[in-house]
Structures are given as structure tokens and as C-alpha cells.
Design brief:
Elements (H helix, E strand, L loop, with lengths): L23 E2 L2 E2 L8 H4 L6 H17 L9 H10 L5 H4 L5 H10 L11 H12 L38 H25 L3 E3 L8 H10 L3 E8 L9 E5 L5 E3 L3 E7 L5 E2 L8 H10 L3 E8 L9 E5 L5 E2 L4 E7 L6 E3 L8 H10 L3 E10 L7 E4 L6 E3 L3 E10 L3 E9 L6 E10 L2 E11 L3 E9 L3 E6 L2 E7 L1
Parallel strand pairs: 4-7, 9-12, 14-17
Antiparallel strand pairs: 1-2, 3-6, 5-7, 8-11, 10-12, 13-16, 15-17, 18-21, 19-20, 19-22, 22-23
Length: 473
């Protein structure tokens, strides 16, 4: 189509009207394979619907500048006509109206019965679009696409795709009229379909949102082909683009990009329980590095076995991340936790040491006003410290006189839930545990009693066998 809107037919094969018998030679499809219908490619009889399909392919190329299907070999192109759906024209040229796109897709339907019934019907649809009545056509899809193409046989001049002779004048005139009509549409709105050229900006390294905005400023589209891991670009940055920056393309052109997923993170292997040799081999085979190795006694893991690791297994880290290991030195030496001996009588302390396989060493005695005579007031190894078996412990024992008796008044009101309560008061102080009160009292009564105690301690009030209240002494 010239700039003045004049259409010029360079090449067009009308399948139903042609006098040729074949478009194959030596078993290979040749000729206008870019426009053949699915039924032609399968060697089925051709009809007027076959030419509607080819016309749809021509109109597709006029509007987009690209043929619907392309491949290196004619056979592959023919198979695409049978099995594949074409890229929507509007995805190639966003200025193509949806209603016009639907007309083209209806003409290119896989099944002949889903196309226009005639070239005249297709022409009328284009006229409806042209005058702006807004009639839209939604092409039906054929989901049963798995059709086996018969093997190419050596049929010579008969070929893979057969054509029948028919009267052509009326059909050809209508088809040429359709092309003329479309040329008029394009002449009137050509600037909307074919934008001016723009320079593709360089968007490498840009964030995906920033890159998309930059392309849209130049009336270009962005399509993400795929994402991949990359050590040089951060997450969501553009790794590559096609066409490259600096090239001139038509407005509305699709710029294909590859987006970075950032540094690839690999799951840390679990080496706990492995020997140090096996663990180091596993770590290196997975692409990581062995870091610091520390050792400690452990009764659960045998000697030279990994007890723990940092980072832990399952954590995702980049390659060459350092993994620190803790290794078992085997069973720890037998150690005893020093018991609490202060407050026990000397005899009780001696028994406690024997129970823990410890030895009573030197016994020192000191005066004490806090502890009664023969009560342990100090030990040279603090309670809770781990010591070796048969370690010797030095004890300091009180010579008395011990704490002086003190008195404190205890007052409380009995609840009214029951009629009577058995009230018991027990004292626990420097002199030990003892019961100092045991009486039956009426509910709601106020109990007031003086309690004697030595040093520091507590007084517990027990009602009917249950602890009711505790007083510090």
C-alpha cells in the first residue's frame, strides 16, 4: 500500500481458484506456505473458506508487518498453521482496534466452519468496522489442536496440498475489493497503525518498573521473556533487552527483556552427625566453604562427629558461603554438680557428699548467731559448680549459740464457705520445721496468734489440710 493509499498486489495465491495442482516439490512444501490454511497443510479438500484463511493471513501481515507464522523450514510453518494460535495483532501493534483484530482472527480460524461464510460477508464486516458502527466479532477457538500431519510422500507433481479448479472471477473481485477496502482504512488511519520510528532507550541495569516507565515514555512496550539468577544485577533489574538500546524501531514495538532474580541462593546441606571428613566433602561438593571448627565434649555424638553447624541446614545462602562446625570430642570426663550443703546438719551434709561420690575434707568450726550448733554455715566449693568425682570439700560448721528466739503476731480471718475449719500453723526457720498451732475454729472468725521463730523463716497457715496463707518471719 503506497503512501497515497493505492494498493498494489505483489503476490497472492487463491487456493480454490488457482489452476495449479500443487505447491510441493521433491517432498518439500514451497510457494506461499506462509498463507496456507490448516486444511491445505493436512492435504484435505479446499473450499472458499481456504481463501478466506489466506486472506486473513495477508491482512494480518498488512497490519502488523509480520507473517502469522514463521520458521526455518516450510514444513514447520505448515505445522504451525495446523497447531498454533497466532500472536494477537494488537500485541505487535497496540494501535490495532479490537474489532478489526477480531475480524482477522475470525478469518484465520482453524476450522473452516468457524470462518466467514464468504468473502462478501468478510467485506461487509470490514465495512461495518469502517463506518464506525462498532460491530465486533469474537472468534471461536478450537481446543482440539492435536492433529497429526500425514507424512510427505513422493507424489511428484500431485504434491502435499491439492487445489481444485473453479470459476474465479467473482471471488477474486471480492477479495481484491476487501484489500482495497482495508487500504482505504489504513490510508485514513495509517498514522494510528504505523507509528513513527523511535530510538530504543538503554534500560540495562534499570529496575523493572523504572525500565517499563522509560519504554512507555518512548511509546514502546516491555515484555518479560524470563527471569534468571545473576551475580551482577540485583533482583528485578534488567539483564538484557531485545532490540538493544540505540536501535530505531516503530512506536508500539515490543521490547523483550530478561529480568534478574538476584544472586542464586542454595540450601545449606545438613552435615550434623557426619564425620568431620565427610562433612567437609559434602560442604565443598555443594559449593560452600568450611569455616571455623571448634571442639567440645558431647555424650550424644561420637568423637570427631559434627554436633552443630552455622548456618543451619535448610538456610538459603549464596555459593561459597562459609559454614562453621562444632565437633564432638566424645564422652566428657565424669563430672559432679556440687550439692547445696549450707543449712544442713553436719551428719546430713556427710551423707549428701557420699551420695554424690564426693569426699568430706576438713571441718572448720565458727561461732554463729544465725545457725545452731553443728549446722553447715559455709562450703569451699559453691553449690552448682561441676567438679570431678571424689573431689574433697571443706565445710565450716557452726558452734552456736545460734539465733535468738523472736516472736511475731499473725492475724487472719477465716472464710465463710464452711461452718468450721481445722487451723494448723507450721513454722520453718533456722531451727527447722515444726507445728506451732492446731485448733478447730468457726467460719468467719478472726484468728490472732503469736509465733516464736529463730533467725529467718516462714509461717504457713493450713485450713482443712490446704495451704491458706504464708507469712514471712
Amino acid at each position: 500500500i503506497t503512501n497515497s493509499g493505492i494498493e498494489k498486489v505483489a503476490d497472492f495465491g487463491i487456493a480454490h481458484a488457482t489452476s495449479k495442482k500443487t505447491i510441493t516439490f521433491g517432498g518439500n512444501i514451497v510457494g506461499s506456505v506462509q498463507y496456507i490454511s490448516p486444511e491445505q497443510a493436512k492435504g484435505e479438500p479446499v473450499t472458499r473458506a481456504t481463501d478466506i484463511y489466506s486472506l486473513g493471513c495477508v491482512l494480518y501481515e498488512i497490519l502488523t508487518g509480520k507473517i502469522p507464522y514463521d520458521a526455518e523450514s516450510p514444513i514447520t510453518i505448515a505445522l504451525k498453521h495446523i497447531h498454533d494460535e497466532p500472536v494477537l495483532p494488537s500485541e505487535i501493534n497496540s494501535n490495532i482496534p479490537k474489532s478489526l483484530e477480531n475480524i482477522i482472527l475470525k478469518a484465520m480460524a482453524k476450522l473452516p466452519k468457524e470462518r466467514f461464510l464468504s468473502a462478501e460477508e468478510m467485506r461487509n464486516s470490514l465495512l461495518t468496522f469502517h463506518v464506525g458502527k462498532g460491530k465486533k466479532y469474537t472468534p471461536r477457538s478450537n481446543n482440539d489442536k492435536t492433529i497429526v500431519m500425514p507424512p510427505i510422500s513422493g507424489e511428484g507433481d500431485e504434491g502435499l496440498l491439492r487445489k481444485k479448479k473453479v470459476k474465479t472471477s467473482g471471488l477474486a473481485i471480492v477479495i481484491v475489493a476487501i484489500i482495497g477496502l482495508l487500504s482505504g482504512i489504513l490510508f485514513v488511519a495509517g498514522s494510528n497503525f504505523f507509528g513513527s520510528e523511535v530510538v530504543v532507550p538503554d534500560i540495562l541495569g534499570m529496575d523493572i518498573k523504572e525500565a517499563k516507565a522509560e519504554l512507555e515514555k518512548n511509546n514502546l512496550k516491555m515484555t518479560v521473556i524470563h527471569e534468571e539468577f545473576n551475580d551482577e544485577y540485583d533482583v528485578d533489574e534488567v539483564i538484557s533487552q531485545d532490540p538493544k538500546g540505540g536501535m530505531k524501531v516503530k512506536e508500539g514495538r515490543e521490547i523483550k527483556v530478561v529480568i534478574s532474580k538476584g544472586v542464586e541462593l542454595i540450601s545449606i546441606p545438613n552435615v550434623v552427625g557426619q564425620t568431620i571428613a565427610d562433612a567437609e566433602l559434602t560442604i565443598r561438593n555443594e559449593g560452600f566453604t568450611v569455616g571455623a571448627i571448634t571442639k567440645t565434649y558431647d555424650s550424644k555424638y561420637p568423637e570427631n562427629t559434627v554436633i552443630s553447624q552455622d548456618p543451619t541446614s535448610g538456610t538459603k545462602k549464596p555459593k561459597n558461603t562459609t559454614i562453621n562446625l562444632m565437633i564432638s570430642q566424645g564422652e566428657p570426663p565424669q563430672r559432679i554438680e556440687m550439692p547445696q550443703l549450707i543449712g544442713l546438719t553436719l551428719n546430713d551434709a556427710r551423707n549428701k557428699l557420699q551420695e554424690n561420690n564426693l569426699i568430706l575434707g576438713e571441718i572448720k568450726k565458727e561461732d554463729s548467731n544465725e545457725y545452731f550448733a553443728d549446722v553447715v554455715i559455709a562450703q569451699d566449693i559453691q553449690a552448682g559448680v561441676l567438679v570431678d568425682e571424689e573431689s574433697s570439700v571443706i565445710l565450716t560448721v557452726s558452734k552456736g549459740p545460734g539465733p535468738v528466739a523472736q516472736t511475731r503476731a499473725i492475724e487472719f480471718i477465716l472464710p465463710e464457705d464452711l461452718d468450721f475449719y481445722k487451723v494448723v500453723i507450721r513454722v520453718n526457720d533456722g531451727k527447722g520445721k515444726r507445728e506451732v498451732y492446731n485448733e478447730l475454729k468457726q467460719a468467719g472468725e478472726t484468728v490472732y496468734i503469736g509465733v516464736s521463730y529463730f533467725g529467718k523463716g516462714t509461717a504457713e497457715v493450713i485450713l482443712n489440710g490446704k495451704l491458706f496463707q504464708t507469712f514471712d518471719l
